[in-house]
Amino acid sequence: KADDGYRLWLRYELVNNSTLLSNYRNAVTSVYLPGTSPSLLAAKDELQMGLEGLLGKKVSFQNTLANAQLVVGTPASSSQIAALPLSNQLSKAGDEGFVIVSTTRSQKKIIAIAANTDIGVLYGVFHFLRLMQTQQNIQHLAVTSAPKTKYRLIDHWDNLNRTVERGYAGFSIWNWHTLPRYIDQRYIDYARANASIGINGVVVTNVNANALILTKEYLEKVAALANVFRPYGIKIYLTGRFSAPIEIGKLKTADPLNAEVRQWWKNKIDEIYTNIPDFGGFLIKANSEGQPGPQDYKRTHADGANMFAEALAPHKGIVMWRAFVYSNESPEDRLKQAYAEFKPLDGKFNNNVAIQVKNGPLDFQPREPFSPLFGAMPKTPLFIEYQLTQEYLGFSTHLVFMAPLFKEVLNADTYEKGKGSTVAKVLDGSLDGQALTGMAGVANIGNDINWTGHPFGQANWYTLGRLAWDHQLSSAQIANEWVRQTFGNSKPLVDTVEKMMLSSREAMVNYMTPLGLHHIMGYGHHYGPAPWFDKASRADWNPVYFHKADSIGIGFDRTANGTNYLSQYAPEVRKQFEDINTCPEEYLLWFHHVSWKHTMKSGRNLWEELCYRYYAGVDSVRVMQKEWNSLEKLVDKQRFNQVKMLLAVQEKEAVWWRNSCLLYFQTFSKMPIPPSYEKPDQT
Ligand code: GCU
After folding, report:
1. Is the pTM of this model over 0.90?
2. For the domain bounded by 18-145, which CATH number is listed?
3. Atom of ligand 1 at shortest distance to CA of 285?
4. CATH class held by domain 510-556+593-677
5. Which residues carry out catalysis (predicted)?
6. Does CATH number 1.25.40.10 belong to domain 151-486?
């Protein structure tokens, strides 16, 4: 059967296990879900669609409690929910969480999906449907779930002309031309998908912002989107162009301490709230890569952020101020600049400002150490920014499941307050007692039929939502859930796809940037290898700046003998990395300039190890191809062929990466590729 992938993980196919199907049918064919609020109606629609698909039969929604097997609501929307002894669990569920329990009513077994708020009910319904889509036993349910971060966001880098910066899945899904009056069904399906994984905020515009989005005409369009998203618990955020007061406000300056400028933003923000009463706030990129910002007026990031914060505070809006800053005027290691600018401002931001920090100190590489800002700003809420769109990871032609990358950062120990001070604890607020907590992913979504171009790109969107809700979920759990919902529940299928997914990130690191290499992708577009490139318009955009290969060795010395970037970490972290003999090898060339002859843990020298890794990377892609081919009978034809073709592209490009990097680095190492690696290539 053909499948275009549009339904994402919300497919609701008939349960293909007859025992389970009859259990499910016995358990939930009549539902009591009273209430008429938009979120409860959305929950009801979803439940109806989901159950009818999964059970293959009509589900009756009762007007009364009698005979209902599934009872859904809040203590306010349903007296039955109020009567159940759930107060203990509900107190743990908070504003957005939910409780799903098997219980009894008048001696009859029922299942209750309960929450304190209507949006919690919707999340509970999605969770319940997920249990059935992944074929779990629903006979003894006792789930209490609440999100670990408060702001769970998808950031679109979508321009107003519908191009998407670093977007590889078509054009923007926002059709500004037909908004506000034409509501594409896609907006609703987008909101459903996000709500199903707990995403509660969307930044709809590019960080390289266009001030036009703040004009009256566009705000009406944004308001129409906000109306679609509201029932799904999703707030809209915009990117704020710092120079907007000049560009659309006719002022002479955008100085954040100028009274007129402050008034202009206050009026603008008030205007936004009259259109969108629950507007979430702004994401701001300032004084970064040529964007305007407070430093243009010799003011600090705090001066800039607090200007917005003050105007947003009465409306409960927030500012997400990005820490992705660097300039080529400074001779410093580019990696040191964010910490240098932000660390001194710790404690200087208003309490509705969060600093949004990319996971690593550079820029969304296949592997980076965690950003040293995590653990360094205890008085400031920090959000993490991941990139779902695969700017440096082979665009949407390479299969890379990013949960292991995300988890590696979450589990990293900052040692801010001794051992166990993980990035996850910084983010969920538990380490420093922060109330403003958040996780964001730069969208990989476009108007391609299947949303993300590569069918497996959907898994990264899914992962972001699931980890923002619960950072303790493992990569394997997330892969398992996603495969079951997206492709099906048969064991060989689930086992094989899960295995492919879990190995894919390390495969990519090996064939692109093994042993801590970074930023050696093609100049500007960042696709394919170009470690030789040295003609960029600024030095710190040149791959040669990052790998520093010479006749002695390769790698960037960031120890005290080099740029001393390592000094930005806690002493315990520094210690792990600063000794060339104990530094984990996956970060070796990130922190050290290492001799080609250096002996590695495997006993090979560095050059041989580099060869070994590049060859291993290609081999892993070939293993993935074989694994996928074994699934031909278990996956629908269309998606099977798509993935098969994409894996063939990935294999070819892995070879391209391996061969060109090794040939280039060989001009420095002057050593042969170990003959045993030189197997004939299969294409
Ligand atoms: C990367 C990317 C840019 C983007 C920037 C950012 O450098 O290449 O396109 O604007 O990140 O995150 O601001």
Report:
1. yes
2. 3.30.379.10
3. 13
4. alpha beta
5. 289 (proton donor), 363 (proton acceptor), 391 (proton acceptor)
6. no
